[in-house]
Amino acid sequence: MVTGHDTATAVERGTGLTIRRIEQVPLVVPLGRVYRGSYYAMTHRATILTRVHTDDGIVGEAYAADEVDTQAAIMDVVRTEIEPRLIGQDAFAVERCWELGYPVTFDQLRDRRIGLVALAGVDTAIWDAIGQALGRPLHQLWGGYRDRLPVNIIGGYYGAEDEARAEVEEWVAMGFRGCKFKLGSRPPAVDAARVEACRATVGDDFVITIDANQGYTLPMALELCDRVRDVGIRWFEEPCRWANDARDMREVRARGRIPVCAGQSEHSPEGCRDLMQAGAVDVCNFDSSWAGGPTNWRRNAAVAHVYGVQLAHHEEPQVAGHLLASQPHGTYLEVFHPDRDPIWWGLIENRPELEDGTMRLPDGPGLGWHYDAAYIDRHRADR
Amino acid sequence: MEFMRAVREAIGPDRRIMIDCGVRNRWTVPEAVKRVRAFEEYDLDWIEEPLGADDPEGYAQLRAATQTMIAYGEREWSPAGVERIVLTGAVDVVGLDPGRVGGITGFALSCDLLEVHRRQGNAHAWSTAIDTAASLALSWAKPVCRQLEEQPFKGPLQADLIGGAIVHQNGLMALPQGHGLGIEVDQSVVDRFQIAR
């Protein structure tokens, strides 16, 4: 309906949001310790800060891509394949921009994730530009269902057992009211004891999700379910090994009787749809930063909506918070400890404090984050 | 067939023909198969609602026996309904009516589903000019919608309600201007046709 309000947008001023260039700043930050999950280890936190410069001075800015080994390859894709196609495009035409970028995934001999992560960084920055042009935070533009989310801390990595209790106690002291606890490479009896110890430390009023990172066989996952069924597990993430995961997770749901979460390992909403059609998941944690950005994530949100599946988002709270808060079927935001994600805790100047275990999304336009220039200078990897 | 031939001869080989059977025509499955196969000689772009809004088995048989795109869906009342008919594997173009499928939000959700299933969406730009304007706005925004329909009956709720019907020029529709749906509703027309309650 036509209304009489006078707030001139960039489009109405005739200036548009024409994309002029795309700037990238790579960051690599060493971690204080090695983090070991089921069958993987992390030593660095990396990201790429992407800036989409537009004609009328608005600069869409977002960071994504926790990728150390492929950081240069991702930046090359943006510089040589995406930027040339987007120069001159209107950032408001975000679906068209996405379609222009999507061919970076077509080379089947290149790791498809490189193109998807490159596209995600640009797509997120374009959305930030749109939010700035409209003067609204993205969680409102994407649906506005709520303005705060409960936050789970990701932890419980394998290490010295006597450190585990101290780690969990620190979560409570930091104000968290929920966690995602790592397991999946020890015998289920051992892992179950670790989860029970966590519950004993945090008490009943604390959300515990568990994450095997595809570490167990189906019988192991079912044994783990039997052992922790009374511990109060909100969901069991990626319980089974990758090759047969949809069928196995359906079995875990039905026979293990603990809700199952997966989706982060899918490259597309189509793949997530197949998990939902297979009856494999209660919660889908599709990762926008690994799979083409918020534009693609929101398509999957529509699929989950009609399947009655809840939404989570693997890591990357700086964009996940806006996406999850926007949707009625969004659940918990997940963040790491400062030692594991120094960028979330160090780069963002206006990261909100926890209130009763929840985080209020920023009110500023777009993603709404203010980045610390000195932090960027200290950790940029291109100097 | 005579009519189809006449239309094709009149418009030439480059323009597309779609047939919409509407609510009144109900063919049997064999009749639909026979007709669609015959129409294919004249390059039919899609056949719309040849078996009505709810005949998944019939559509599966028609799909197996013909090569023309099948269109239906405008009488689905939710995105879940859209997902259900897409999963039959027998619909290529899904009709979407914002007045039925859950408003702009339901229409947009449905388009996201169609994107994931690689199916085409097509706005059912019917009812009043408000529904038409919403259909057009969504069609501009969503990649799965590849064309617009012009409502042919310019009654007062298509024309007077917004000070003149939305029409094409040389086969193209102009981008809507202004905020929101880009139309201005004439309250006097609303008053004139309002049903007393």
From TrEMBL, chain B:
Domain Mandelate racemase/muconate lactonizing enzyme C-terminal positions: 1-69
Keyword set includes Cytoplasm: no
Cofactor(s) of this protein: Mg(2+)
UniProt-listed SUPFAM superfamilies: Enolase C-terminal domain-like (SSF51604)
Pfam families: MR_MLE_C
GO BP annotation list: carbohydrate catabolic process
An MF annotation (GO) of this entry: magnesium ion binding
Tree of life domain: Bacteria
Keyword Transcription: no
Keywords in alphabetical order: Magnesium, Metal-binding
Transmembrane stretches, start-end: none
Listed PANTHER family: ENOLASE SUPERFAMILY, MANDELATE RACEMASE (PTHR13794), MITOCHONDRIAL ENOLASE SUPERFAMILY MEMBER 1 (PTHR13794:SF58)
Protein name: Mandelate racemase/muconate lactonizing enzyme C-terminal domain-containing protein
Organism (species): uncultured Thermoleophilia bacterium
